[in-house]
Design brief:
This protein is mainly alpha-helical and 566 residues long. 72% of the residues lie in helices and 0% in strands. It folds into 2 domains: 420 residues, no CATH class; 91 residues, Serine Threonine Protein Phosphatase 5, Tetratricopeptide repeat (Alpha Horseshoe).
Amino acid sequence: MQTKEQNGLQTLIFSLGLLFSVLLVTPYSTMDPINLPKMVVLVLFSFTWLGLIFGYFRLSEFRQNRLLGALLAGFVLDAFLVLLFSGRVFSESIYGISGRNTGFITYISLAIFMYGAALNSSEKFLARFRVIFLSIGAILLIYGFIQFVGLEPFPYVNIYANNVFGTFGNPNFQSAFMGIFGAFALSSAFEIKKGGAYRAALVVLFMASIFGIYSTNSWQGFFNLAAGISFACILLLFRSQKILLAKLLVGLSIFGTLIVSLGILNIGPLASILSKASLEARRLYWEAAIRLLGQHPFLGVGLDGYGDWYRRGRSIEAAQNNSGLISDSAHSVPLDIASGGGFPLLLIYLALIFLTVASIVKVVRHNTNLTIGFIAVTSAWVSYQAQSLISINQIGLGVIGWTLGGLIIGYSNLPTDSESKINLKNPSKLKGSNSQSISISSFFGPLVGLLVGALIALPPYISANKFYEGLKSSDARVINSNAYLRPLEVRRMLVAANLLEKNRFFKESLEIARSATKSFPDSYQAWVLLGSLTNAGLADKAKVNTELHRLDPNLKLYLFSHVAHR
């Protein structure tokens, strides 16, 4: 049973965690100013929240969400087995690769956010979430407009054709977020109890989100916006007891989804419309992920290991016709999880999605609980899921998607009106019916969680910051020393080796490259760099030939010629 103080502390931790996991960037501190800081704050706040949850542990409060708890525990346990036995480099399995950071610790944190959201889900909590989410969306709308007019305040090196990428580092992610946000804002505008000015403001935010999608020049946002709004319309019809119309729209939505899905796969009437170069590339990434899943069905290739295995997973045709097309992600969250963790991890993830869908159906059946707040959260979740099928598990989007799922599942377990009347006759059954004084554990638990999260999450950020400061110093000795900072990170080592090579520190560059190939033997880039260095000997180049053939067996002749003529 939660006290008022505990409830307020949970809301604060949740609000700050969600806010910073989406919005935080560190452009003056690290080479990756987007994903690494998001991972750090996600871990810090999730473990703090976990400490608070267990600080007031009451078995009765966990029973309602025991199925979700079992699935999430299974997901974490299986991910831990992948961490131990997949053969992937340990540090990359825990923290993920640079530029993604979707390793073991990130998935644990997402699971905590999902379960914490389920434990606290209620109509009141959904109202608080609405304020948080609308605030995040408004901030990103303003920031996106600033980027659109060319007034970006941060010194980003933009590799994309479009400058509107918000705090996500990629226009596709900003577009996807605007789709999720737009579906949420429009659904929320149907709340009759709210004043006209409030509802008008939500409509304005929805229209602004459409411009936000347009400004990114990415179609993803329109795709998942349409999915979210369509589902919101279905729920609104069920809420209004227009069952026949609702079922008809369900059928049309399924048919439309099927046609669009076939078009994305270059099949059917929409194939020519959807046959963009980006989708053609995605099809190759999906095919490689499926092939890797077939080759490693039980443990996958390791969390965030897709990039090291892509060349071994792609078909001969893909290697010959698209040899320069490389990716470190399957560009589909389910396929990333499948290729990284195998069938067991994929099945548990799909079970979590199925449980969320079943929870939505449960609420629809008990129409009295089908509120506008729930419809808004559900439309946003559907929008996120649509995006996740064709895109990368970016941390800022992932924490939103997993939180929305938790809110839906937890809400579905709330008592209906009839159950509430029964419980009123026995107040002891009501959650929080007995008063409880604030306990020391309410503060001790979060403090312990914060310390544990800091011990786990801060080392890679501290090393990244130290390396970044060393680069700014232009001191070769500092750069050389910082290349070996723990936990080791292959990108930092390659950057250091390249800089030292260009400044004629050939011995130091060679030592770093050799160390990189030893610590990260599956890094294709590390082997290519070693073979290109001035001081690389015949033995080095022979080893490079062998390893490049191992990492990309479909281009054997090309690779031997490529390295031999350096």
